[in-house]
Design a protein that fits this description.
Rossmann fold, 6-stranded mixed β-sheet, 4-stranded antiparallel β-sheet, ABC transporter transmembrane region fold
């Protein structure tokens, strides 16, 4: 058994040692810091009994013999020990906190890298607030393992062992009497430890729920206000916040009960020493210095014992957080990038061969879908909500993996392409455009180096420059979080420029003109023509006026193709497309 395991096992505390070993894996690059803290821990434990011993020397030897020089030397030595302990404690605190921060820096980077590589299936089923809790507050709890947990426990237990050994070496009977309350203390510690662990787990659960609720409602505040849901949602928040408070109060209750018990037991031990030791001092069987030293030993002994329970729970909280973090690191939602081929030189032919896809089990969204788009062709896909239009976009980008069939680009299965190379070759304009809280330039280039002149030219091509040039700072204007300081149509025009800036081979437009006025719609139609010129393009639209010039229109219904042709041909068929067209344009 590992030495640390032995120490923990004697405490009666159950730990997941696999998790601890994984934490220690992240310590390896900083093993110098870890070794240094362990060395200082040992030094502090060895120095702990010196001050009571020096007090005994001062009383029994120097003062008893009226040796002023000896007393001066003893006091100077005592001051030196105190100074050395303070210096070592300073270095120890600095190193343990530095170690914790280095570990969570590395761990958080790995976790964010992992989360960034998750497929959308993970985000579809996991509330965002839970992931944020793992990345932020759970990480801080893991840092506490090093600053207030594992190493401090080792330090305190070493100090306890050394002090007890010294006490029994100096006077076994007095040591046994003074330690007679320890069994009761260990029992109280065990009960406290068991109960506080449950409350801490509850606290972590409530923190995650609180983060989830706050994050979701801040993002959806517009909906809350538009539907006058402020009071109802506020009541929900009160309830969640109250549960969080109650969980913390339960932990406070256990602390408020445990620490007075420890103080009482400490006082009883000192009282026993004073009573028994005082009688022996009066009978001259022990010295006054020894009695005073034992009182100091008891104070030194009970301080770490009193804090051990708290530190064990800090360690346990860190372990619980670590389990959650490592569980997230072990999630199987990571996108598989097994392809080796580069998509940099693709021409743009797209083919779906008998593609079946379901987000859940066999609730099929696409049912044996097959079609071919020749390179350079502009194809529009229309259909009712839920027909599978947006799903097709996600599958081409490999945001999800199909269950059956094949998707090919230039007659090569998309799974054979390097995933990042594939996505780099595809430009996507979504209906809900996301802009970062950064400059317009950075939102277009996504932090790739490009000259302002080039960006301005792209904005002119897409028709966005007419409003960007009027903004304060122009390219350096910050449109706010999610682009909230500019209109929906303006955000969409910027997204066209963003796609152009990355020179894609394939273009996908998903409802890019669904929520704008007629003037902006014409700008977006013009931008669409610029964007799709000489490129294979897939256009998904509810407004049929924006796709009349498409080379081809595919009509989907329940994941299958029901009509295929250009605008005029489909109108002549008087089928589904003609009906959709009539509904939009010919109603009185």
């Amino acid at each position: 058994m590992h030495p640390i395991q032995k120490i923990m096992s004697t405490s009666g505390t159950a730990f997941n040692w696999k998790v601890l070993n994984r934490i220690m894996f992240y310590v390896r690059p900083f093993r110098f810091l870890f070794v240094a803290t362990v060395v200082i821990t040992v030094l502090l434990a060895v120095l702990a009994p010196l001050r009571p011993w020096l007090t005994q020397q001062a009383l029994d030897i120097d003062i008893a013999k009226h040796d002023i020089k000896g007393l001066t030397r003893t006091v100077a030595f005592m001051f030196g020990v105190l100074l050395l302990q303070s210096l070592l404690q300073f270095v120890y605190t600095t190193l343990t906190n530095r170690l914790g921060q280095e570990v969570i820096l590395s761990l958080r980077n790995n976790l964010f890298k992992k989360v960034s590589a998750f497929g959308l299936a993970y985000f579809d089923k996991t509330p965002l607030g839970i992931t944020i809790t793992r990345l932020v507050s759970d990480m801080e709890t893991i840092a506490d393992i090093f600053s207030d947990g594992l190493i401090l426990i080792i330090s305190d237990m070493l100090q306890v062992v050394v002090i007890i050994a010294v006490m029994f070496y100096i006077h076994p009977l007095l040591a046994a009497i003074s330690l007679s309350t320890i069994p009761v203390l260990l029992l109280a510690t065990r009960v406290f430890q068991k109960n506080i662990r449950k409350t801490f787990n509850d606290v972590r659960i409530q923190v995650a729920k609180l983060n989830e609720f706050v994050q979701e409602h801040l993002v959806a505040m517009r909906i809350v206000q538009l539907f006058n849901r402020e009071e109802e949602e506020l009541n929900k928040f009160y309830d969640i916040n109250a549960k969080h408070r109650d969980a913390n109060i339960r932990s406070i209750w256990y602390y408020s009960l445990f620490f007075p018990v420890v103080e009482i037991l400490s006082a009883v031990s000192i009282g026993l020493i004073v009573w028994y030791g005082g009688l022996n001092v009066l009978q001259s069987s022990i010295s006054l210095g020894l009695l005073v030293a034992f009182i100091q030993y008891i104070n030194q002994l009970f301080r770490p014992i009193r804090e051990l329970a708290d530190k064990f729970n800090t360690l346990q909280m860190g372990m619980v957080s670590s389990e959650r973090v490592f569980k997230l690191l072990d999630e199987p939602f990571t996108e598989v990038n097994s392809g080796q081929k580069s998509a940099d030189k693709i021409i743009g032919k797209i083919e779906f061969r008998d593609v079946w896809f379901a987000y859940k089990n066999e609730e099929w969204i696409l049912r044996g879908l097959s079609f071919t788009i020749p390179a350079g062709q502009s194809v529009a896909i229309v259909g009712a909500t839920g027909a599978g239009k947006t799903t097709i976009i996600s599958l081409i980008n490999r945001l999800y993996e199909i269950q059956k069939g094949r998707i090919l680009i230039d007659d090569i299965d998309i799974r054979e392409y390097d995933l990042y190379s594939l996505r780099n070759a595809i430009g996507v304009v979504l209906q809900d455009v996301f802009l970062f809280s950064d400059s317009i330039k950075n939102n277009i280039t996504l932090y790739k180096e490009q000259d302002d002149i080039v960006i301005e030219a792209l904005l002119k091509q897409t028709g966005a420059w007419h409003f960007v040039e009027k903004l304060p700072g122009q390219l350096h204007y910050n449109p706010g979080e999610r682009g909230g300081l500019i209109s929906t149509g303006q955000r969409q025009l910027l997204s066209f420029a963003r796609v152009l800036a990355h020179h894609p081979k394939l273009i996908i437009l998903d409802e890019a003109t669904s929520s704008v006025d007629s003037k902006l719609e014409q700008l977006l139609v013009n931008a669409t023509e610029v964007l799709t010129k000489n490129r294979t393009s897939i256009i998904i639209a509810h407004r049929l006026s924006t796709i009349e010039k498409a080379d081809r229109i595919i009509v989907l219904q329940k994941g299958s193709i029901v009509e295929d042709g250009n605008h005029q041909i489909l109108l002549q068929k008087k089928g589904v497309y003609a009906h959709l067209h009539e509904v939009q344009f010919m109603q009185p």
